[in-house]
Amino acid sequence: MRTLFKKLVVGIITLEARAVLRKYRPKVVAITGSVGKTSAKDAIYEVLAAGARARKSEKSFNSEVGLPLTILGVPNAWSNPFRWLQNVVDGLFLLAFTAPYPEWLVLEVGADRPGDIRSLASWLPVDIAVITRLPEVPVHVEFFDSPEAVIEEKASLLDAVKPGGVIVLFADDPRTLALQHRLPAPDARIITFGFSPNAEVRGEHIQLVKEEGKESWPIGMRADILADGVSVPMEVLGAIGPHAFLPALAAAAVGVALGKPLGESAGALGRYDPPPGRMRLIRGLKDTLIIDDTYNASPAATEAALETLDMVSHPSDDLGITPKRRIAVLGDMLELGRHSAVEHRKVGAHAARTTDLLITIGFRARDIAQGALDAGMPDKNILQFEDAGKAGEELQNLLQAGDCILVKGSQSIRTERVVEEVMAEPNRAGDLLVRQDAEWKKR
To answer: What is the predicted pLDDT for the residue at 439?
Structure first.
């Protein structure tokens, strides 16, 4: 009965969303990819909101339910049937009357199953499509015939681009860049972004940022953004790693597409706050630093996070810090299907090169531990747990001043509970961590 009710409501709000788009005719930026969609969405919103009324997908509303909710401007009702009925009524109100409506919608588009994006592309008119990284083994590949099928599903978003529209592609990934040959219309404009020398909007001279005049942990990243012969400095505070800077580059590329001066986009990005659980920097107990990347996990994103842990933790006179240990807390990476064991072991081998202490959480993550052992990591430096809460309790006992801790795992592993155990201000968990709403806390 509940499933039938959900299908009925989703069908109704989708019809309402399509009608609202036809009535109000907002411009649409749609973002997809397998890594970095939410962060890119948030950064692009800041650039657009600086000069127009804009609305973005809340959190990671990127599904057949999430997109209609964003278009209608109503919340996720979770399991409350009365709230869902209220959402339907609110949608009817938008259609029956003329209400203030955003000029721009910034929508994150995800694909959990084959046909998800293709279905949305059949009715979503897109002015600017942004595609981030498409790694060799993407998340959700378990439900597709092959990694190539996932890429093709993501690429189907291009079919929704309107004539004369813009396609923004991540230049550092050959799989993403190859989509420039899959144009929906000959008059579509392509803009590329990244750190590649050939990117039209690119980042250069990336470095860590620390508090002025203090010998302390880093607090963010700094780089120069270049486009059309103009270069402007840009800082992203609160997150770490070169890939934490990519959302700003994607947003700057959207600004270029709209003819915005680069300095104006950089100024707007000063309000960009990296979303929780995406390489966020959080102070830990005993004068430690946590790199909180707990939103989700895929092989490519986990390896990039491990590289960042190594970079941040490496003793540096320039930073004025000499960390004692690099600690990685890694949970299961889900929805990898037949690629699961191999990819977990690859991550383990990567961890053996970039960490001093490895903690794994979950059944599948045992292969991370095995991969680290096979790569030469001492057995005494590897701890394995089945539960995130217990792993966090043990980590709290092991911490030493100067440790830098990366925490990452797929969302159902709930690795944010590890961060809550070892963060210096657990009373701020509701503001700083992912999945803190009441519905998630029940799970």
So the answer is: 77
**Alpha-helical regions (H) of 222-272:** 242-257, 262-268
Q: Which residues of the chain fall short of a pLDDT of 70?
A: 1-2, 59-62, 185, 212-215, 314-323
Cα separation, 381 vs 307, whole angstroms: 19
Please report which helix (H) or strand (E) contains residue 280, including its range. strand 280-284
What is the third-level CATH fold of 280-434?
Protein-Tyrosine Phosphatase; Chain A (3.90.190)
Q: What is the per-residue pLDDT for 314?
A: 63
Residues 6+ apart with CB under 8 A from 35: 132, 133, 135, 243, 298, 300, 301, 304
Average pLDDT, the chain: 91
* Spatial CA neighbour of 347 closest among 198, 164, 60, 135: 135
| Cβ atoms within 10 Å of 25's Cβ, excluding its own | 11
**pLDDT tens digits, 164-191:** 999 999 999 999 999 998 877 678 899 9
| Continuous segment of H or E residues that includes residue 404 | strand 404-408
Predicted pLDDT at 1: 43
Q: What are the angstrom distances between the C-alpha of 214 and each of 94, 210, 280, 298, 401?
A: 53, 7, 20, 35, 17
Token pair recorded at residue 235: 């800082």
CA angle 210, 301, 416 (to 5 degrees): 70
Residues β-bridged to residue 233: 224
Name the CATH topology of 2-271: UDP-N-acetylmuramoyl-L-alanine:D-glutamate ligase (3.40.1190)
